[in-house]
Amino acid sequence: MAELGASDIIDAVRGTVKRYGSPPPIDGVELLEAARFVDDRGSFLEIYRREATHDGTERLARFFAGVDVAQMNWAVVDSTETVKGLHYHLRQTDLWFCPPEGKMKVVLWDLRKASPSADVVRTYVLGGGRGTWLRIPPGVAHGYRPLVAPCPLLYIVTRPFDLDDPDEHRVPWDHPRVRDLWAVQNG
After folding, report:
1. pTM for the complete prediction?
2. CA nearest neighbour of 85 among 172, 178, 14, 187
3. Over the stretch 72-98, which tens digit does the pLDDT of each residue have?
4. Which helix (H) or strand (E) holds 63?
5. What is the dihedral of CA 143, 149, 154, 155, to 10 degrees?
6. 115 neighbors 62 (Cβ within 8 angstroms)
7. 36: left (phi over 0), alpha (psi -120 to 50) or beta
8. Is there a contact between 93 and 157 (Cβ–Cβ < 8 Å)?
9. CATH of domain 30-181
10. C-alpha closest to that of 37 among 127, 130, 101, 103
11. Structure confidence by residue, pLDDT tens digits, 27-51
12. Burial 43-59 (b: 16+ CB within 10 A, else e)
């Protein structure tokens, strides 16, 4: 049987070639899946460690190395039809933790002109049975859409929120560069 070419497919349904693999990383963004220990009694998830004290604790301690915890927050969104964000900070790093029971789609956009990953956009799905940390450096716009309801998020910031000097800069959630990324992908 002869191979077909793109021109051999009906014009009305001719699609694009599906791409596989990951888009380029965003400089300074880190993702860390926390080790979850499950047995017949339940589960245990270590989500913070100041220092490594035995084998297997190095990754978590390294993730938090140099992080000056200024404030810790807990948020719960009750609707999967909500987009939280998009915003960025100039002086603050965010560390987001989505617990295993939650599930969210995160959109990141590197707005830093001098970054090796300037203008790169990435999406991640956090939670969904895994406890996942995400480090978001200053200058990277971020937001999320819950994929389950309720959807919890624990997050740490490296600067306390100051009502008189908020380091919170808005980007429209439906900006043309990211508006199509919030949808759940079909197909």
Report:
1. 0.88
2. 172
3. 999 999 999 999 989 999 999 999 999
4. helix 58-64
5. 10
6. no
7. beta
8. yes
9. 2.60.120.10
10. 130
11. 999 999 998 889 999 999 999 999 9
12. eeeeebbeeeeeeeeee
